[in-house]
Amino acid sequence: MDSTANTSLEAEMIYEYQVNELMMHTGDLICTTDGGGADIRGQFWRLLGKLIPGDVDHIVVYLGPEGRCIEAGPLGVSLFEISGNIWDSEKMAEQRGQLIDELYGVAYPLQGKDLTEAQIVHMREDIANYCLGQIGKPYNIDFLDPYRENAFYCSQLAYKAYLREGIDLNTRIGIPNIPGTESIIFPQEIWSGCAHCRAEVEGNS
To answer: Dihedral of CA 190/192/198/202: which sign?
Structure first.
């Protein structure tokens, strides 16, 4: 899918989609681990992922319809399309600036909240529209500043979208013994702080 297409499109309904047998609805968060495969790209992203605390290295916002998603990655804030119902970053690499990652699971920030169905629908639409409004903005390399809106890193995009709905995804864990890092929105803390479902991993019981 052309990541520049439909940039002005507003979400007018809630979509659902399955990836690796995990159900997602508009606004849910796909969590991934950097790296995968044996080629140089996978090795590069695996090495980069080791610099990020925790098992989860990257956050993607599911939009719909079908497999349409949005992320803040190597291309800045951009759209891409999941190829089929299996997460295969090799097939999506060209759309995503050669980002290679493996599906870790899906996080559900709205699950367990005291919300009516109408409120949930409104919030999902608003989250999607906020993210769509950021398309084309560059990647934010200043992880200590998640409050800006002229550039985004992956978990910051999700954080800002949900903060508009009164849901703060920053648990302020920071990096132990490094003052001032509480402002960083780590992908792992979003996973740990939300209801979530782990993807099946071959070899796991």
So the answer is: positive
* CB 133 within 8 Å of CB 62: no
Cis peptide bond upstream of 109, omega within 30: no
CA distances from 90 to 53, 123, 204 (A): 24, 32, 23
Architecture of domain 16-198: Alpha-Beta Complex (3.90)
Summarize pLDDT for 92-136 with one digit per residue, the tens.
Answer: 999 999 999 999 999 999 999 999 999 999 999 999 999 999 999
Helical ranges in the chain per DSSP H: 40-49, 89-92, 117-132, 154-163, 187-193
Q: Which residues contact 142 (CB under 8 A, 6 or more apart)?
A: 148, 151
Q: What is the pTM of this model?
A: 0.86
Tokens 């497999």 locate to 67
Q: Where are the domains of the chain?
A: 16-198
- Adjacent-strand bridge partners of 33: 102
- The answer to whether 23 and 90 have CB atoms below 8 angstroms apart is no
